[in-house]
Amino acid sequence: MARSVAEHLVNQLVAAGVERIYGIVGDSLNPVVDAVRRTPGIDWVHVRHEEAAAFAAGAEAEVTGKLTACAGSCGPGNLHLINGLYDANRNKVPVVAIASHIPSDQIGTDFFQETHPDRIFTECSVFSEMVSSPDQVPRVTRTAIQHAIAEPGVAVITLPGDVADQPVDDAGQQAVVPTPRHARLVPDAADVTALAEAINNADKVTLFVGAGARGAHAEVLELADLAAAPIGHSLRGKEVIQYDNPFDVGMSGLLGYGACVDAMEGADLLVLVGTDFPYKAFLPQDVTTAQIDVDASHLGRRTRLDLPVHGDVKETMRLLIPQIRRKTDRKFLERMLKKQRDMMTKVVGAYTRNVEKMRPIHPEYAAVLLDEAASEDAVFTVDTGMCNVWAARYLTPNGRRRVIGSFLHGSMANALPHAIGAAFAEPSRQVVALAGDGGLSMLLGELITMRTYNLPIKVVVFNNATLGMVKLEMIVEGLPSHGTDSPAVDYRRLAMSLGIPAVRVEDPRDLRRALKDGLRREGPALIDIVTDPNALSIPPSITSGQIRGFATAVTKQVLGGGMGEVMAMARSNLRNVPRP
To answer: Which keywords fit this entry according to its UniProt record (predicted)?
Structure first.
């Protein structure tokens, strides 16, 4: 049957399970958009910025595990996709991106809006090819879909507008290749036995768990019980392993908390379980280290590695656990758990008590009340920066909730567009965007998208009129903060001007009610919380260099006439400094 290239492409996406394409229409993309209009089973979602389209597609894929799609018109249109595509590719979620192109006979002539998307997107994709003739379309599109699902990751199809309009004879062409069930990667028996012997011979074992342990919660806990091992986790590992976990000692990294760092540094054997944790400074260099990972390229690339195991975490646990002798000496585990309780009470919990009358509102307190008010299966999308910190420390995982963020790419402005994708994917599920005012203002137009489709997203704005994480980074480097503050903005008024119900909270005594009422509303809502701009994240382990940097920055601030700001910062953060 003959049809246009655009129609064939759209039909292939539908056959692969794609339900919507996020993007902005444009001349070279018009044939694809019109094909969507005429094809049952797929919709066009009009966002206000193509970056948001890619973020939304990535979040939908994250929540559902299914293939999603986004699109951008030639030149500037598809260039805007790149940040969200980097994020999706690093998160290893299946996304097809359609990058329309200038007329094919003008390519290479420095034509109006000319770029080379097939080259530009190579670094942020697992597949990137240009369609230059109709005969290519069936196989190139099918191959792109297979790469996106199998890797998984981003597959980019570059399509000139004139080619999209040409007819293609797809009679007898297979739309998509059936997707096989994921294979299980079983580790080599000798490597598992070597790890078992190391665990049995070590006096003090610590497990550090990442997102690669998804689906192996019970098995990892069983190993921890046998090995008397405290369990720390990465940020992406939090939702995978922290819930119902009596061995939990918190999280490592600059956003971390609890006894995780002490548990890793005090161990005789550290076992990295399904994590490619990138921060070398927070990993011990003088502790015997084992690593279990399904991707062999991850083994040993972050820290020392003595015992590599290449395999799925669950399959590795299945072979490993029968070889582990239960440890009777559990003093190390008990000591780390006590330290965790103390630190959670004295440090992490410091801002959540006796703060009902303190203004500006402590963001930690706001995060705790949000955690209490949110549903048991809520999807939280989290802006990069201080919102990441508050989510990591105060949102409680339970095996049903999801926390989605730009945890590997680290982009600003991801929370709202991620929430759009999650809400489209599961409209009956509560979706909460934890947005910093810096991130929200960057893609503010997506509030219009949220309102246009009446998406039931609850945007909770942590509004401190500053870039808090950047401020902390500058202080640690010995620099007084500069260029981090912004004018105060009333996001309630902005939301209400778009027809979105909104409330602004400045008194902490009003916060609990505002969150409960906002989360119960039908459709979209925004809660603008005015938070303390001086509340910063104190890492679980403070180095001498960080202390020197803080002292240097404070001295410069005082000499520059900023004594009042220094005192406000001290009052806001003194209780959060880790103590022995």
So the answer is: Pyruvate, Thiamine pyrophosphate
With H, G, I as helix, E, B as strand and everything else as coil, classify residue 134. helix
pLDDT digits (tens, 9 = 90+) for 237-256: 999 999 999 999 999 877 78
Q: How many other CB atoms are there within 10 angstroms of residue 109's CB atom?
A: 10
Task: Print burial letters for 196-224: b (CB count within 10 Å at least 16), e (below 16).
Answer: bebbbebebbbbbbbbbbeebbebbbebb
As beta bridge partners, residue 462 has 436, 529
| List of E strands, 55-184 | 68-72, 95-101, 127-130, 154-160, 167-169
Range list of H helices, 97-165: 117-120, 137-150, 161-164
Q: How far apart are CA 301 and CA 304, in angstroms?
A: 8
Q: How far is the C-alpha of 514 from the C-alpha of 528, rounded, in Å? A: 10
- Could you give the C-alpha distances from 167 to 6, 30, 31, 371, 549, in angstroms and in order? 9, 15, 12, 54, 64
E strands, 383-515, are 402-405, 431-436, 457-463, 502-505
Angle at 173 between CA 129 and CA 101, to 5 degrees: 30
pTM comes to 0.90
**Domain annotation for the chain: domains and CATH numbers:** 2-169 (3.40.50.970), 189-344 (3.40.50.1220), 350-576 (3.40.50.970)
DSSP 114: -
C-alpha–C-alpha distance, residues 226 and 243, integer Å: 19
How many CB atoms lie under 10 A from the CB of residue 165?
Answer: 17
For 149, 155, 392, the CA distances from 67, given in Å and listed in that order, are 7, 10, 28
Length of the chain: 580
Beta-carbon contacts of residue 369 (< 8 Å; ≥ 6 apart): 511, 512, 515
pLDDT tens-digit readout, 372-389: 999 999 999 999 988 988
